[in-house]
Amino acid sequence: MSQTSPNQNRIQLLPEVLSNQIAAGEVVERPASVVKELVENALDAGATRVFVDVEDGGRARIKVVDDGVGMSREDALMSILRHATSKITVEADLHGISTLGFRGEALPSIASVSHFTLTTRTQESNAGTKLVVRGGIKEEPMDVGAPIGTTIDVRDLFYNVPARLKFMKSKGTEMNHINHLITGFALGHPHVHFRLTHNGRKTGDYPKERNLKARIYSVLGSKACSRLYETQLEADIHVRGFLSDPGYTRAGTQGVYTFINGRQVRDKLLLRAITASFGHMLERGRYPHAVLYLSVPVDWVDVNVHPTKHEVRFVQGGRVFECVTRALKMTLEAAPWKEAELSASGAPDSANLHLWSQTAPSTTAGNERKWSGFPPPSRPMGNNGASWAPTGTTSHGMRPPEQASAPGFTLATYWIARDNGSLTVIHQKRALSFLIFTELERQGSEGEIPRQRLLFPEQFDITGKEKSWLESHEALLPCGLVLEPFGETTAVLKEIPLPLAGRGGHTALVKKLLKDKIEDPRKIRELIALFCSDGDWTPLDQQRLEEAYLNGDIPSGNTEYGVLSHQIPLAELDSLFTRGR
Question: What does the domain layout of the chain look like in residue ranges?
């Protein structure tokens, strides 16, 4: 702290540039924060097209172009002043906010920590206005030719705040945050065309859709939508959305999108309501996939509780919780995914998929899976429904189950199957991990494990020791991992084992391998199998378990992987329930 004389005032009004940089510390956490604020402004301006161009994960450049109403020169000059906004005028407006932005802090905060250019024009203006702000220092505005709407170009983010640069993650991590953000905007605003590019390559393109259902299909794809079921409740709170069946979950909350009056939020109350609705059907630490839209009276929700507006506070939190759980429980109790099991022909049911494909773009409607919900098809694969006649024993010394049928239901961690004389309880995650590991061992003994190239290679920050370890050991490549040093402090993951594709577990796997410096190929394959079973489950996983059960490939009793399955003879159950008659 600087020294002051006895007669000098200690408390002083901060310079505008410094106060804006302090505000930026709350509003601008990372490049995705900039994208969020700029896209929200575009949507508030009535844009029907919002195009986002990003370079180097947002650190080098973020450019957002919209076709909204634009701004006059006077409004453009006001927009880069703190607490200047068109969204609210009096205190009462804070209790009924219906716009995405309202504080008037975003643009001056962003402009104070970057090289900032704003170009805008209204329909009434013959010329546009261009404003340039460098690190909070404004240059003279100028007239330019420009289309109707606003373009904001942010370069060299945090160039004048070196301490903030130290906390930036890798380009891949920052880009993942931006991708997830644009996905949320696209899901919440189907009438707007969103496009995202990174270093000149298109990473997301979501044209206008006629309704929410069509937009969800175009954003999440056929695989996810084949496992989503509609839920709706009309009350003082309107709940509408789509929820996955209990067999389609993931280890994190990245598959949960919640919107309140069009605003995407990360709300703990809503997440608790979603998980509480599943009860015992959801394994601890697992989360469903869900896209939920809530229409709430504006005076019931306070969005002015977090600098970035990610969180909200409900005046009637108990009522919101009750309405959400009631809507979801009605869907879960109806269990629409069980239609496949009840199909008279035994063939997989495609009713849910058909409902989605009616709203889906024709270019992707033909790429659907053959069955849509848990449980899997109620007949053995490739057997036309005939009873399976066991012959011989399996490689584990087990006889396949006689007259085996598809599983009847799932109970959280466990999968219940039956044959002619017993029930078999299978630990789903352990069994899947065992099956994948067995397959990886076989592939490894025959050569290299099949790999899939990542569309966008992921970067990891590494230490000097980790770099030396990567350069001196070649155990990763035969296991299906192409991880290479890139410079002195970065490694790039280019390819992953095929079983990991689409599960989202490769990031945690690589961090584990770098931390523990594992060299034994067998242990690496064990880890791959573990992260596969911990990641997103797919319909193919359910099919894999069913076929393995039918073929007798899941050992019973205690194994080196723990107990995978346990048989309970029906006679034992009969004896249990007839005691004490």
Answer: 16-206, 220-340, 375-581
